[in-house]
Sequence to fold (312 residues):
Amino acid sequence: VAFPTETVYGLGANGLDHDAVTRIFTAKQRPGDNPLILHCRDWAMVRRSLVPRDHVIPTCYEEASASFWPGPLTLLLPKAERVPLSVTGGHATVAVRVPNHPIALALIALADTPLAAPSANRSGRPSPTQASHVADDLGDRIPLVLDGGACAIGIESTVLDGLRSPPLVLRPGMLTAEALAAACPSLRALRTYQQGSETALEAQPTTPGMKYRHYSPNAPVTLLLPPPEGLAEGSDRAWLRFVGSAPDGALPRLPMVHVVLGGTPEAVSRHLFEQLRALDHAGVSHIFIEGLPTTPPSRGVMNRIHKAASTT
Fold:
């Protein structure tokens, strides 16, 4: 069943049932070593179903969840034996979060079990932020899509590994490392994973979004850092901008489709995947995306743009 969350739409199944989890991988055509996130109602469900009984929840997780659950924060925990290895990509840890969406929480409560729920799209495609995006990718592969309208955030959750010292943000999202460190005294030394910095982790990722190419439309994507003075002409090309990225006079006067994603990283995050899909429907041959200024709030959306881009 596909359902909305505050981040993107998820494809949900019983996260404690290996056969159900396998059907997720089949529907998405997802590599089996790409772990899934389990979505829970609260800490009580996490403790009851997902972690060893003798495990002591790290202080940093207690602090972070008190401030940011329900919300776009995923935590890495040691898994209980009952959690299938198909969920974790063969690892001894499991990624969990409590979503901040009434439909998602109602579905979890109705199922009374953690739901494994990666993004509800074909593997490698832009994540779905509307029910129609799910139908485009998986309409003939799944029985039901719950339509909750557009997702509020538009990119996936921040993933925190507090089992290592110092703690590490494995995947950036709109919840920044700086916000986590400010709210949680035990996360003052928090680091953020950088692509290419940890070879072993990249070869065997413990969380989704680290190993494979993601978020890619059919048209090739070029990330512009910084925007060039001129580009090859073509009326079937598109340029994704954001407000204030460059004065209008500095933009190439070319017959392109110009799309303004918004004036803040939050707005760009909310509209990025939607517009990549819309441009695919429009049949453009190439998509150029301007890079955002380097700030903590832009880190998550720039991570997605880098992964979508075939060239920079």
Observations:
- The CA atoms of residues 38 and 279 lie 32 Å apart.
- The chain has two domains: 2-203, 221-308.
- The two ends are 36 Å apart (CA to CA).
- Residues 2-203 form a domain with the DHBP synthase fold (CATH 3.90.870.10).
